[in-house]
Amino acid sequence: MGKVSRRQSLKMLMGGLTAVGLGSSVLGRQVLAATVVPSENSALIVVDVQNCFVPGGTLPVKDGDQVVPVINALSKHFANVVVTQDWHTQGHASFASAYDGKKPFETTELSYGTQVLWPDHCVQGTDDASLVKGLELPQAELIIRKGFHKDMDSYSAFFEADHKTPTGLLGYLQERGIKQVYVVGLATDFCVAWTAMDAARSGFKTAVIEDACRGIDLNGSLAAAWEAMAKAGVERMQSGAILS
After folding, report:
1. 6-243 has which CATH code?
2. Active site members
3. pTM (2 decimals)?
């Protein structure tokens, strides 16, 4: 495929939300009401709160750093916390720099389909890939590193970009007896949404805590993500339901 705009590239990524069999229709909004008390069978999944994705990083999400205090407060209410990190090799297949003549936000065809090419980001062992300073999750027992296979990208915490190669998170949660997951982090309309939808289709009761996330929201991507998540049965809530 040829050169496309950043907005077109992000729209292609939103197509991945329907690639698992979930189309967009009328915007749905499922909101958890009243006070929510996470049980021992609940887990908080903190997605990609890394230097890369906050202001000053290589792929910053606007106001991405503002999720940190909210996530810290939420985590105190969970016995089970999982953290994810984008963790790419040098010369990763998702990097434009890995291809002669390619630029960020152009595309290429890989074995699993069309891959949007990104600037080099979240390279293993670099400060860009580190968790944001100030993120306090002492009870987190697992870090899922995704996108570390050199020839395959990964947005979801559950499966790589081919929608079938597991990260191991599903088995971990099942073995721990987890029944419900709450997803927070960056960015709402991509890695958070892909993670939430994979959680729901894997049988977990799933909620996204909206104010503990930030979205990119280009070309309608945020609204499209909420539509697809609602259609998948993902609930949408605010942190106040837990923190109040």
Report:
1. 3.40.50.850
2. 48, 146, 191
3. 0.89
